[in-house]
Amino acid sequence: MEYRRLGKAGLQVSELSYGSWLTFGKQIDEQLAKDCMYAAYDAGVNFFDNAEAYANGKSEEVMGKILRDAGWSRDELVISSKVFWGGEKPNQKGLSRKHVFDACHAALKRMHLDYLDLYFCHRPDLDTPVEETVRAMHDLIQQGKVLYWGTSEWSAQEIMEAYSVARQYQLTPPTMEQPQYNMLQRTKVERDYYKLYEVVGLGTTVWSPLASGLLTGKYNNGIPEDSRASSHDDIPWLREIFEGEKAQPKLDKVKKLTRLADELGMSMANMALAWCLTNPHVSTAITGASKVDQVKSNMQTSEHKSKLTTDVLDEIEKILDNRPQCSAVLIWGLGSRDWVLGDWKKITQYLFPVTTWI
Question: Among residues 3, 38, 41, 54, which one is catalytic?
Answer without folding.
Answer: 54
